[in-house]
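Sat 14:20. Reprocessing the chain from the morning session after the first attempt stalled halfway. Input below, unchanged.
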Amino acid sequence: MRGGAVAHRVRDAAGGGVARPAAAGGGARPTPVTPEFAERRLKIKPKETLHFLVQLRAMLAAGVPLLAALHTLRQHATSPAAARAIERIAVVVESGHDLSHALDCLPRCFPKYAVHLLAAGERAGALDESLGRSAELLDKQIKLSGKIKGALAYPGFLLFMTTVMTIGILVLLVPKFEEMLMSRPDQLPATTRLVLAASAFLRESPWLAAAAGAGLLVALVVLLRSRKARGAVFELASRAPILGTLIRKAYVSRSVTTLALTLESGVPILTGLEHAAEVSALPRLQEFWRRAAATVRDGRPLHQAMEGADLPPALVQMVVAGESSGALDSSLRTASAFLDRETQAALEVFTGLLGPATVALAGAVVGFIVVSLMTPILQMAKFVG
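Finished this time. Tokens:
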């Protein structure tokens, strides 16, 4: 079905049947959020957002009116939160607002780039295409996150088992050597005293040790929920060998894909650059996209902002070619596919090295404890001999 027909049905279902005037700067921005419809606490999972976008696009393309599609999706929602979100969307649409405006009222359920993609699609008469692009972009982000989490699962399990094994050694094995080692405490190496002190702390104050561990974990979770702290962690990790390469390539690919899809949907390039910065978790990369937006705002080509930046040379060349041929969105699409392959290759390298590195770390921890215990014992045996 043609996008114009879909957009026509959406306007009729939303009420009024009249397209709203385009926003300044290219007509891709949604209307401001109406306070009485805003719901800033409601949150759904990214996969639920993806399912909503995919199913809504399929139903609209099949000729189902927007409100009927929303009511059907609400009845078959996978969670109470998703049902409430779809119900809120239906209420906003029934009041006469566009679908993009309804999604903008749920900032914790739908990313900002999806709102602008839908706003551009509504004004261009291609809502179904915008829904498809939004779903494609969100799907890529979910898959990348899933691959990274999958790569970290095995090393995470090894680290957990190493922690359990270390605690077991300190609590159960070290006390068997403590009486013999403490016969000459002034002659013990610093590493041995450290191991004995850790063992004594875990045995004498188990609840305090558990509370300290839980507090550290909670503090870490709270810290990572902060946007600034999370950005600082990603920035620090991006400077590490191998892991840093993966993180940089992953977020460059993510931001370039976002920019390509927004431009394809008719979103102005300045808005697209804003979204590219928004989805980039690295402060350096965010600052680059802001400088690029300033360059474009001054009337200069985008590739000038990329000169001297820490970006793949192939990306810069594709942007130059795209601006020269007047097909920047197509060139960015090609660059996005190239960067996706580069990210996948970096992820495979990282995964291949992470497992052995974790095993080596576990061996080093256990070896440190064993050597700390055996060194004074061997010295005593030599002295006695």
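The radius of gyration is 28 Å.
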